[in-house]
Amino acid sequence: METAMILAAYAVGCLLAARPLIHWFQLESYQFPGYFRTLRRQGIRAWGIGPLFAAILLAALWVVIDLLPLAGISATPSVARILLIALPITIGWGIRTLSLRQKAKKALVYTPRIKRLYAVCFLVFMGIAAGLMKLGAGNPGNSVNQFIPWMMLLPVLLPIWTALGGLLAWPIEKGISEMYFRDAQRILRERKDLTRIGITGSWGKTSVKFILGTMLNEKYPTLVTPASFNTPMGVTKVIRTQLEPGHRIFVAEMGARHVGDIREMCRLVHPQMGVLTSVGPQHLDTFHTQERITKTKYELIDAIPGDGSCFFADDGGIVTGLWEKTDKEKTLAGLNPEKDDIWAENIQVSPAGSSFLLCFGNERIPCETELLGELNIRNIVLCAGVCRKLGMSGKEIARGIRKLKPVEHRLELKRNPGGITVLDDAFNSNIRGAKQAFRTLKEFPAKRIIVTPGMVELGEQEENMNREFGRAMADCCDIAILVGKKRSEAIRSGLISGEFPEQEIRIAGSLQEAAEMLKTLTAPGDTILFENDLPDNYSEE
Asked: Treating both helix axes as pointing N-terminal to C-terminal, what angle do 112-135 and 158-189 enclose, rounded to 10 degrees?
């Protein structure tokens, strides 16, 4: 019984200390390749947790077992047992508390899945601790020194044991997710009156989803997946908890980091309409090639039935090529009246918003919106094609466009009381969207400041893309604050090659440090663009 209590206390202490590791596992969507990449990026922060735990525990036990007896103070067996129980828990709690001092941009969410992961990790840690104790051939009652060195292997290899817990939890999660998945399929299968629309793309899909939902709501009760719910389990949850009998249209955002991800989403939703916003070098660290990305995005179009409809954003590149090869009913939307089925012309963009003519053949519909930038106009035109296909009139479409609000953190205009204008494009992380944000920033008067950590998840192209990113921003800002000492090197190189004044480049170790810099650099009338903000698993601190 005493041995079990000591092992449980040791496991609890390690579990408390492992909180940052479990948090990173959640941020990486419980994917092992991403988790191990985070361990490599975080370096000392990831691999230092266990040795710190072991060092503190060894030091405390050394004081109790070796030093105090030299001073004539010897712990009784019962006191020694209490220490063996209390010390690991106390140390683990201290390390956990220390990790919480670094405020997370996206906090650990204690979902049912994360609670199950904690439970499995506890059992794994208990089992490993018991095995290590047996290897040490020790007994807590009379031979503490024999098993303690072996027991230190548990915290020292904590990142590995946490991954093992995730691996053993995977069959449980697979069974639970499949049960919910089938229930969501059943719900959709029984809704014969529901039109289902899938949206995917390397970027722009969340913005398009919210734009389309607002416009469709002018005529039809519409449910769109909230926030960035774009995984099978996220969409499953929305279907099971938010879809109501009154809804007539369901719009599902479909994200992907691996080949087959969109196919799995389509197995759930069975969309009758498919919208492809973009195809580019996003998540190259998991896809590895542009061809695999293109193939995965096209899985949505492949899933559309023969009597369905497909909608493509005219990018003059990959998406346009996919439109050309598609033999299903299709619509091309963009800014080219010579080629596109629906387009915008006479675009006027200002800090107050945008106006344009929405064109369907010979029909011209005057439209106004608070949204900024040409890319948003392209997104609106793409959504207008879907609305027209679903029978909405020009007036209904224009009314919906007028009601559009900026999507949070996607080129969102904010006026601060101090007279400083903020363009919040923190969610964006692709070169095309970034260039659009840079062009929009140029519409504002000087002084213009950019705060950015650059782009990630671009595989071997990351350095070159960040160098291009730097060149693109060189002529649109007066001060550049780059976040992340390592990652900023390529951006800095691009800025200098774009003839940006080197003395106006600032390097910050974190977003908090960048915010402190802004206090001394800004004045009323200035404009700040926040371009991308990386989650905690990409932090260089």
From this structure: 150
326 within 8 A of 297, measured Cβ to Cβ? no
Strands 330-334, 448-452: parallel, antiparallel or unpaired by DSSP?
unpaired
- Rounded distance, CA 398 to CA 225, Å? 23
Rounded to whole angstroms, the Cα distance separating 508 from 259 reads 36
Tens-digit pLDDT profile for residues 156-169: 899 999 999 999 99
Question: Terminus-to-terminus CA distance in the chain, angstroms?
Answer: 43
- Whether pTM > 0.90 for this model: the answer is no
Q: Can you give the C-alpha Rg of the chain in angstroms? A: 28
Q: Residue 108 and residue 22: Cα distance in Å, rounded?
A: 8
**For helices 431-441 and 462-473, what crossing angle results, to 10°?**
10
| Same domain assignment for residues 324 and 447 | no
pLDDT in tens, 84-98: 788 889 999 999 998
pLDDT tens-place string over residues 474-487? 889 999 999 888 77
**Residue 138, C-beta contacts closer than 8 angstroms, at least 6 positions apart:** 144, 145, 146, 147, 148, 150
Nearest to 158 by CA among 313, 18, 360: 18
Measured in whole angstroms, the distance separating CA 52 from the mean position of its chain's CA atoms is: 30
> Are 501 and 495 within 8 A, CB to CB?
no
Q: Are residues 282 and 323 in the same domain?
A: yes
**Statement to judge: residues 162 and 103 lie in one domain:** yes
3-state secondary structure of 200: strand
Alpha-helical segments (H) within 390-510: 394-402, 431-441, 462-473, 488-497
Q: Taking CA 345 as the corner, what is the angle to CA 344 and CA 347, rounded to the nearest 5 degrees?
A: 100
Question: DSSP string covering 364-404, please?
Answer: EEEEEES--SHHHHHHHHHHHHHHHHTT--HHHHHHHHHT-
Residue 307 and residue 199 share a domain: yes
Coil, strand or helix at 199: strand
Query: Where a domain ends, among 348, 380, 402?
Result: 402
Sequence-ordered list of residues with C-beta below 8 angstroms from that of 112, at least 6 positions apart, any chain: none
Order across the sheet with 309-313: list the strands: 222-224, 249-253, 195-200, 273-276, 309-313, 330-334, 342-350, 353-360, 363-369
Based on the domain organization, do 278 and 390 belong to the same domain?
yes
DSSP assignment, residue 405? -
Residues 250 and 383 in one domain: yes
Asked if 120 and 172 touch (Cβ cutoff 8 Å), the reply is yes
Number of domains in the chain: 3
Higher per-residue pLDDT: 511 or 25: 25
**Closest C-alpha to 323, from 305, 310, 304, 341:** 310
Does pLDDT of 287 surpass 60? yes
- Bridge partners, residue 344, by sequence: 358
Give the Cα separation of 331 and 275 in Å (integer). Answer: 10
Average pLDDT over residues 64-72: 54
Same domain, 310 and 455: no
